[in-house]
Specification:
Oligomer: heterodimer
Order of helices and strands of chain A: EEEEEEEEEEE
Radius of gyration of chain A: 13 Å
Strand content of chain B: over 45%
Order of helices and strands of chain B: EEEEEEEEEEE
Helix content of chain B: under 10%
Number of strands of chain A: 11
Radius of gyration of chain B: 13 Å
Distance between the termini of chain A: 40 Å
Number of helices of chain B: 0
Number of strands of chain B: 11
Helix content of chain A: under 10%
Distance between the termini of chain B: 37 Å
């Protein structure tokens, strides 16, 4: 099946810093989602981005489908941005294959 | 919109008992719901795909008789962990895919199961 790799696995930043998270996938996809899992375990949809660029406040994402990667940008980080960021792509009948995630810690 | 709830949020049970977890789509209809399992500090692993009115499709390695899934309506799917053992302790998360438009998945808040 399709492989999803995320980097870096861990990232520690000071408040106010910018960051770029990467997601590589091994095969063509027609869908890609970015999620933020908060400390309580809730998965929050950030972006549905099969291709192109989208922005939502301090977050933006870009997927280059032809090169099989997606990037998530976080600008002016806040402590509430801490958590695990996952990217996921479809597998089979709409189930998702998740990457292993990037564990982000924003220090005050 | 696109809210998915799960109940209970956490449950502790004794070995050998069965536990039922409910997943509901509150403001949309979902023909398909999914059940995932997440171990501490690990990624989510798809367990099964649940389609309304039909049998669930299980991923390889997931025991059908241990993890019973029922999808009786367009807004409710249940996962029953039968004869639970300590190794079944985990974080179980459901998601639902809306009927219309983009097939984005929306996730419930998860259920933490601890089997003693």
């Amino acid at each position: 099946g399709i492989q999803v790799e995320q980097s870096p696995p861990d990232l520690i930043l000071q408040e106010g810093a910018n960051s770029t998270l990467r997601c590589n996938f091994s095969d063509s996809v027609n869908n890609l989602q970015w999620f933020h899992q908060n400390p309580w375990g809730q998965l929050i949809n950030l972006f549905y981005i099969p291709s192109g660029t989208k922005q939502n406040g301090r977050l933006s994402a870009t997927t280059v489908a032809t090169e099989r990667y997606s990037l998530l940008y976080i600008s002016s980080s806040q402590t509430t941005d801490s958590g695990v960021y996952f990217c996921a792509v479809p597998r089979g009948a709409d189930g998702l294959t998740f990457g292993k995630g990037t564990h982000l810690i924003i220090q005050p | 919109g696109a809210v998915v709830s799960q109940h209970p949020s956490r449950v502790i049970c004794k070995s050998g008992t069965s536990v039922k977890i409910e997943c509901r789509s509150l403001d949309f209809q979902a023909t398909t719901m999914f059940w995932y399992r997440q171990f501490p500090k690990k990624s989510l692993m798809l367990m099964a795909t649940s389609n309304e009115g039909s049998k669930a499709t299980y991923e390889q390695g997931v025991e059908k008789d241990k993890f019973l899934i029922n999808h009786a309506s367009l807004t409710l799917s249940t996962l029953t962990v039968t004869s639970a053992h300590p190794e079944d302790s985990s974080f179980y998360i459901c998601s639902a895919s809306s009927l219309a438009g983009v097939r984005t998945q929306y996730f419930g808040p998860g259920t933490r199961l601890l089997v003693l």
